[in-house]
Amino acid sequence: MSDHETVPAEVDHEEEIPEDHPRYQDLITRHRIERGVEMGITHLQGMHAEGRGSAFDYLLGEETIPSADEAERAAAAHLLLADHPVLSINGNVAALVPEEMVELADVVGADLEVNLFNRTPERIQAIADHLRDHGAEDVKGITADARIPGLEHERSKVDADGIYDADVVLVPLEDGDRAEALDAMGKTEIVIDLNPLSRSPRVADVPIVDNIIRAVPNMTAHARELSEADEATLREIVDAFDPAAALEAAEARIRSGDLA
Ligand code: PTJ
User: Would strands 188-192 and 168-172 be described as parallel, antiparallel, or unpaired?
Assistant: First the structure.
């Protein structure tokens, strides 16, 4: 039996979590969400969302499956082709991958915009500050001077020169109707969600069924590798991607995955 079968009782810093713990990745994500709640950037419901995601990740074998890697490559191609790509950030995304989102935005030339389900001015500001602490220069979402048509709740509040104006939007970790509303606006949507049955990935042009912790660095790696590619090559990658097949492959893996 491993020395680390149990979760360390009190973890102040994630470095205290032993890397050889069999549930290392899950403990890191849990710890980051907990810290996010303490810092006022993540909503308490974010822990529930994380639990839901980690159950699916367990069944995926906690790895990027080939169809997800393909989706991450197609997503990178879309972001590089875009005139105005925007990466949407909520409380879970800010807690889990702040630096990685700033890096992806930098590599593909995208804007970062805070958009929250449980929106308060304090959380919007705290997340924008957190992203700036991790290297972001400009963070959108505070002005909120435009609305996504057909959406009643707080997630409809966007910046006129941000998500409202974007042609390609990355929408991670939300199961909701914003994806449908953005789709109705004619935007290309990339969704990261570990649950292939959630509403958001089902309307996405590119559904990525992978943990955001693995998905974002892998998208950045693909974007770096494709940064010199010509438009025809990028269009070929985008056109060859089949969203229904990617969802089907992920669901098949979850339902029949060999965890050995
Ligand atoms: O910060 P706010 O106020 O905008 O709220 C954010 C949450 C996440 C609380 C809110 O959007 C929410 O309640 O989301 P849902 O409806 O629980 O959906 C979150 C989705 O993300 C679920 O389908 C999870 O399976 C998925 N998910 C959770 N953690 C991860 C994930 N997908 C990828 N990587 C993860 N680490």
Answer: parallel
Q: Write the CA distances from 215 to 73, 146, 210, 219, 231, integer angstroms.
A: 10, 29, 6, 6, 23
Alpha carbon of 123 to ligand 1 centroid (Å): 16
Give me ligand 1 centre to Cα 190, in Å.
Answer: 15
The answer, yes or no, to whether residue 8 has pLDDT greater than 60, is no
Q: How far is the CA of 67 from the centre of ligand 1 (A)?
A: 21
Amino acid 4 reads H
Of ligand 1's listed atoms, the one at least distance from the Cα of 42 is 1
Q: Which of 138, 142, 134 is nearest to 114 (CA)?
A: 142
Enumerate domains of the chain plus CATH numbers: 66-255 (3.40.50.12640)
Contacts 24+ apart (CB under 8 A), 45-50: 45/118, 46/91, 46/92, 46/95, 49/92, 49/173, 50/92
Q: Which residue's entry shows tokens 């400009």?
A: 138
pLDDT band, very low/low/confident/very high, at 81 (cuts 50, 70, 90): very high
The residue-averaged pLDDT of 217-242 equals: 98
Distance CA 217, CA 99 (A): 10
Q: Is the pLDDT of residue 206 over 80?
A: yes
* Cβ-based neighbours of 121, under 8 Å, separated by 6 or more: none
Ligand 1 pocket, Cβ-based, cut-off 6 angstroms? 29, 43, 45-46, 49-50, 52-53, 56, 90-92, 96, 116-118, 173-175, 192-195, 198, 211-213
Residue of the nearest CA to atom 1 in ligand 1?
91
